[in-house]
Amino acid sequence: MLLGEDEFDPDALGFTQLHQIILGFDSSDLAEELKYKSVFNLVNKPDNEGRTPLLWAADLGAAREVEILLENGAEITLMDINGYCAVSMASTIKVLKLCLKDCPLSHLNNMANPRNGSLLLSHLTIGYFGGQRMSVYDETENIQRASMLIDAGADINLGTAGGVSPLTWIAQRDFPITTKFLLDSGADVNNVCRNGITVIMQTVQRDARASLAAILSEPRDFDFALKDCDGWNLLHYLAGFGSLEVIKLFETVHVAGTDADSGVVIADSKTYLGCTPMDLAVWRFKDEYHLDRIGEEEEWWTCFKGLLDRVRESTRVSLLDEMSSTGSVTEEEAGSVSSDSEDSTDDEEFHDAVEASV
């Protein structure tokens, strides 16, 4: 029972007889009572909080009652005043399976509850309270729930009203098992939030190393040239937030690309305030920002500068391969591309630019 007998006033709470049966205040048999028309007509009647008998049964994990209500016309898409429905309230795998059987696709991807996000995201985060880590049991069961929702047609990239996908929400909180599950299930690794941030940018910013390792563990169709609303690309994030361990994760990853706005290599791309990745790295040390992630300073600089050099070289090679495959480059032009890359701004000029742009 959710309330003590002395606190229970069905009329004040808007409870019908069906609510009372589900909650255990009425010992009548649900299936037998529904044979009476007067009771049958109450099957979708909500209480004062907008909860139908089905929502209460789903929340309590009462599989038998959920099945009986659905067989007697209970509407799966009805929501309470907070935007919760039977699918979102399903507290057990068995109840969720029953609810999904008759759930229309349009409802699966309904964002009626912006606070908790999509149905997929809400089931992936059961057991996560105010920063408290999900247990391994919760995470494993959540993956089972998510798999059922995805099989039923839930949009794997639909998360919050702000455009945060389930992958980004999970990965930035460093849950590598669920991160890999979502990627293997088809989640878009280049999906961007409303502010333009990608999942890789978020994991770098949050120093979510385990999730980032899971993301980078296999070749994927990464778009490293994507920029957030301030013009920061991945390399800017690595410069401003990257720990030594995070930067080392990119040592075996093919990172390349050119800025869509300026056409320069992303290693030399500028933010909307005019900062290159090297500018931001210099500013970070100058202002002692997130230096606890640096480790040995000399080693960090060596790894970061090495990454920028590899990006420039990888981009040069990729451009040459693309030009060669289309037959649009001559030997002289190929040499020109190589020279342009080699003549990129040196460290002294980067240091001078910091004073003017940061």
UniProtKB/TrEMBL annotation:
Top-level taxon in the UniProt lineage: Eukaryota
Span list, region Disordered: 321-358
Segments annotated as ANK repeats: 49-81
Pfam families from the UniProt entry: Ank (PF00023)
UniProtKB keywords: ANK repeat, Repeat
Acidic residues bias: start-end ranges: 330-350
Coiled coil location: none
The protein's name: Ankyrin
